[in-house]
Specification:
The structure is a single chain. Helix content is 44%, strand content 17%. It has helices at residues 22-33, 44-53, 91-94, 116-124, 162-174, 185-206, 210-216, 218-234, 241-250, 258-264, 271-285, 290-300, and strands at residues 14-18, 37-41, 55-59, 65-67, 70-72, 81-84, 106-109, 132-135, 138-142, 145-148, 154-158, 178-182. Strands 5-2-1-6-7 form a five-stranded parallel sheet, with helices on both faces. It has a four-stranded mixed sheet with strand order 4-3-10-9, covered by helices on one side. A three-stranded mixed sheet has the order 8-11-12, with helices on both faces. Helix 6 packs parallel to helix 10 (258-264).
Length: 309
C-alpha cells in the first residue's frame, strides 16, 4: 500500500479543484493529506458539506482516510494549480467558477476526450493549460465520499518544456499520484482516447463490465479497437491495436467505464466528448469507422443493445 509523505512539503501549494467528484475528490484528498491548501469548487450544497466534513476516501492503494479541505462556489484568489475534473457535459458552465484572473498558475484538465484543451487555452491562455490524462477508477458515492477501486492512480502531463513541468509532477508524485512528463501532448491524449472509446462505447451499449464485453463480444471489441487506433495514428497518436487489447485483458473483469456508470445512474453521457471526437477526427482524415458510427448513433438515441447470443 502506498503511503502519504511523512512531512508536509517545504512550500505548500494552493490548489483549486473544480469538480470534487470521484477523480477530483480523490486528488483533492491526497493533495490535502500531503500538506497542500486545497480549495474545492462546487455547488452550494456540496461546498457546504466538504467544508464541514472534508473528503472521506476508501482506497486499497492509498488507505482509508479523511482529509480536510476548503470549499467555495467560486475561486476568489490566485492559485498555483487548478485541477479541472468535471464531466465534459458540464464543463462550460463549471468554468464560470474559475475566473481567468485567478488561474495564473497551472491549469490541469483531467477530462475525457481531446477537444477540451483548445477551449481551455482560449479561456485561460496557452501557457497556463497543461494537457494531461489520468488513469484511475474512482467513484463519488456521496458528497465528500470517494471509493477508489483501481490499484493505480497515474497521470501523464504533457509538454515540451520538461523543466517547467517538473515541479507540477513532483507535487503530484509526493501526494501518491504516479506522474510522468511526456513531450507530445497529442500522442498522450490520443493514447487515452483510443483505449477509452471502445471501453466506454461497448460497456455502455451492452450494459456489461469489460469482462463481459471480452467474453461475449470479442469480435466487436477487436474491430472497434482497430477503428480507434487507425484514427489515433492519423492524428499523430499511437496506433497499436494489439497493445490496446492486451491492456483490456489485464483489466479486472468487473471494471466498468465511467460512461456506463453514468448511464446506470441516469446521468448525461460524455458521448460527444468520447465517441463524437473519434467520429469527427475520422471524418477529417477520411477514415471509415462504421462500428463506432453505429454505436454512437444508437447510444445517442437510446437504442438498446441486441440480446447476447
Amino acid at each position: 500500500m502506498d503511503t502519504a509523505p511523512d512531512t508536509a512539503p517545504a512550500t505548500p501549494w494552493t490548489i483549486a479543484v473544480l469538480g470534487p467528484g470521484g477523480v477530483g475528490g480523490l486528488l483533492a484528498a491526497l493533495l490535502s493529506r500531503a500538506g497542500h491548501r486545497v480549495i474545492c469548487l462546487a455547488g452550494e450544497d456540496t461546498a457546504r458539506t466538504l467544508a464541514r466534513d472534508g473528503i472521506r476516501v476508501s482506497s486499497g492503494q492509498h488507505g482509508d482516510f479523511t482529509a480536510r479541505v476548503e470549499a467555495d462556489t467560486e475561486l476568489r484568489e490566485p492559485v498555483d494549480l487548478c485541477l479541472v475534473t468535471v464531466k465534459h457535459t458540464v464543463l462550460d458552465a463549471a468554468l464560470d467558477r474559475v475566473p481567468p484572473q485567478f488561474a495564473g498558475g497551472f491549469v490541469l484538465p483531467l477530462l475525457n476526450g481531446v477537444e477540451h484543451v483548445a477551449a481551455l487555452r482560449a479561456r485561460y491562455g496557452a501557457g497556463q493549460v497543461v494537457p494531461a490524462v489520468i488513469r484511475v477508477e474512482s467513484t463519488r458515492t456521496a458528497a465528500g465520499v470517494v471509493r477508489h477501486g483501481s490499484p493505480f492512480t497515474e497521470i501523464d502531463v504533457a509538454g515540451a518544456d520538461e523543466a517547467r513541468l517538473a515541479p507540477l509532477a513532483a507535487v503530484l508524485n509526493a501526494a501518491g499520484v504516479k506522474t510522468r512528463t511526456v513531450a507530445d501532448e497529442n500522442a498522450a491524449l490520443w493514447a487515452k482516447l483510443a483505449f477509452l472509446a471502445p471501453f466506454a462505447l461497448l460497456t455502455t451499449h451492452y450494459g456489461l463490465s469489460i469482462g463481459g464485453v471480452r467474453d461475449e463480444h470479442p469480435k466487436e471489441l477487436a474491430a472497434l479497437v482497430e477503428e480507434t487506433t487507425a484514427v489515433s495514428r492519423a492524428c499523430g497518436g499511437p496506433g497499436d491495436a494489439a497493445q490496446v487489447l492486451a491492456r483490456y485483458d489485464a483489466f479486472p473483469a468487473q471494471s466498468k467505464s465511467s460512461m456506463l456508470r453514468d448511464a446506470e445512474a441516469g446521468r448525461a453521457l460524455e458521448l460527444d466528448a468520447i465517441g463524437g471526437a473519434v467520429l469527427r477526427a475520422a471524418e477529417r482524415h477520411g477514415i471509415d469507422v462504421p462500428l463506432a458510427t453505429r454505436l454512437v448513433a444508437e447510444l445517442a438515441d437510446g437504442t438498446p443493445a441486441a440480446p447476447s447470443a
